[in-house]
Design goal:
alpha/beta; 8-stranded mixed beta sheet; 300 residues
Length: 300
């Protein structure tokens, strides 16, 4: 009788995932970290969730294909999704949250403590969704993140289609935030219970001021920026004149790209289109990385 050879050991995982807490000058910010195990991190993607969500938004709660963190680490990036001020570990200390300006300061302080958990590689690439895009843009305008490679923004523009102060929008609405059910994997809304979090009062109150705030800061953003608008985006205007003005306001940025994601709603990273969107975002991060390391100049 012959003995079958032993089964080969399973391949080593290429992603190391863990929960961490960042120190923002005494304010604890919980976060989810994913690291590549097959290569040193080439750069670090820092993801900031929208209002009423949590860092789990970027970690594939309903389907592994929708995880930004896993995909980024598989492609050689360190990736960290941070619970913004007023969410997660900081909710007890900041029960009312913070506005955009204060969030930018707190998040910048938190990123200074990130080196205790991982090497940042060639720099930091910020990826913001919805309200999370606002402190990301503010940090870029204020130059608060050393080694900032670029920005990727989804679910955020510079002019509301539906004002956040309109009746029924204080905590959002189904149509505004989600769109058609067919856009999402089965179980998304059951898994969403682990993603949804109460939006703090101060950021909701601050939301109405964003068009004026963006107009004041846009000209100080000096890194490449990419905006993505979902096919079923219902919060923001995205007609040609509005998008032309958005681009023109970012006149100091070396590159401004505006893309449209088909088959997606406002919560783009929770739907079937998430992987496509994340690949495009990480491709833009690659371009920003190449620009930094290759010394490219301004491009159209």
């Amino acid at each position: 009788m012959t003995t079958a050879p032993p089964a080969p050991p399973p391949p080593a995982p290429v992603v190391d995932r863990r929960l961490i807490t960042l120190d923002a000058d005494g304010i604890p910010l919980s976060a989810r970290l994913a690291l590549p195990t097959h290569v040193p991190p080439r750069a670090t993607v820092v993801a900031l969730h929208g209002a009423g969500m949590s860092a789990a938004y970027f970690d594939g709660p309903a389907h592994p294909e929708t995880s930004l963190l896993a995909l980024a680490a598989e492609l050689g990036f360190a990736a960290v999704a941070v619970d913004r001020p007023g969410y997660g570990a900081s909710a007890g200390q900041l029960p009312h949250g913070q506005g955009v300006v204060d969030q930018a300061a707190t998040l910048s302080a938190a990123l200074r403590s990130l080196s205790a958990f991982c090497a940042s590689g060639a720099g930091i690439f910020l990826l913001g969704h919805s309200f999370g895009s606002k402190p990301a843009l503010r940090m870029a305008a204020d130059g608060r993140v050393p080694g900032l490679l670029g920005l990727d923004v989804s679910g955020c523009g510079d002019e509301y289609l539906v004002p956040p102060t309109a009746p029924g929008t204080r905590a959002g609405s189904w149509k505004l935030n989600w769109g058609p059910l067919r856009l999402y994997p089965p179980g998304t809304f059951q898994a969403g219970l682990a993603v949804v979090a109460p939006p703090p009062e101060r950021e909701l109150a601050d939301a109405a001021r964003w068009p004026e705030e963006f107009a004041a800061l846009a000209g100080r953003v000096r890194v490449p920026v990419r905006f993505t608008f979902a096919e079923h985006e219902a919060w923001w205007r995205r007609d040609a004149p509005t998008l032309a003005r958005l681009r023109n306001r970012l006149d100091a940025a070396p590159r401004v790209r505006i893309d449209h994601q088909p088959d997606a709603g406002h919560n783009i990273s929770l739907g079937w289109a998430a992987r496509s969107y994340h690949l495009r975002a990480l491709s833009f991060a690659e371009e920003c990385l190449r620009r930094r390391t290759g010394g490219e100049g301004r491009q159209p």
